[in-house]
Amino acid sequence: MGRKSNCRIVVKLGTSTLTAGTSYLSLPRIVDLVRQMAYLHEQGCEVVLVSSGAMAAGRERLGFPKLPKEIPAKQMLAAIGQPRLMALYEKLFELYGVYVAQVLITRADLNNRRRYLNSRNTLEALLVQRVIPVVNENDTVTSEEIRVGDNDNLSGLVANLIEADLMVLLTDQLGFYRADPRTDPTAEMIDEISDPTISDDLWSAASGGGGGLGTGGMLTKLQAADLARRSGAMVVIAAGDESDVLIRLFTGEMIGTRFTPVSSPLEGRKRYILAGSDPLGVLGVDAGAERALRTGGSLLPVGISVVEGHFERGDTVGVNGPNCVEIARGLVNYRANDLERIRGQQSESIESILVVCPT
Length: 359
Prior knowledge:
40% of the residues lie in helices and 19% in strands. The chain has 359 residues and is of the alpha/beta class. Helix 7 runs parallel beside helix 9 and helix 8 (200-207) packs across helix 9 (218-230).
């Protein structure tokens, strides 16, 4: 299914943006953001909305009950709030003649190659029909083991999935700071991050080290931005209450913190590896194999020294260099048992080894 637009945008709305910092969904704020997204849609852009707020909507509907923090309570709130949130989006977008559709995604949908492609095809089909997908994690039934975990990273995965040109993360901060501006009045906001590798001090700031923004959720935003920019998208972290923020970003105005892409759009196989599951195994390689991989070569059995994990043909595995640091990820052509038997062997010996000793 081909691309129909050269302007494909993923917009992520956080709970703090949707509630305007209160305990209630802020209708004026949501109406204004819908107006801006409808404008982008009218200009020919393909818009995907990743929306938080389901649990906040459920909690508001129940009158803010005191509940345990366990997953079943959160699932219950999401089950109550999700249809309420979708009904609100449907009603508001319809004012502008725009249709919306609900798409619920779990980590399992992205771990499996076939389900990954099905998810992508569904989103593509909706965009072709000029429908705005409203994406959320399926919080009502998702177990901890298969959760993406947050809508920031879900946004990055969706941007990768649909080959977005731009991803906008709207939050309660003006952008990404080197320290927490709520506690440090001298904190500096970064206008642009263009280095291919995000520095350790920025990761530390995002995770809360050195007076960073861990409590503000900036770590997940930085993770999402790094994934999306490696998928070829421009990423912006900006304030949701900034006047006409989406429209001004669309016209090229510098607002918030901009992350420039570090690669051209990837072909589908690499895009799946980048977005997909945690590796099901690890391959340790020697120095020669590491050099070959770093210069674009393939990994051959002769260069493999260690095989760990239980995986099948086509699964994702990590590749560690001699210093045990991950240098690559890939899809294996052999299951773990077979790869253990042929590691360190020349390629011409593979067939005879596997035929003589089949598993």
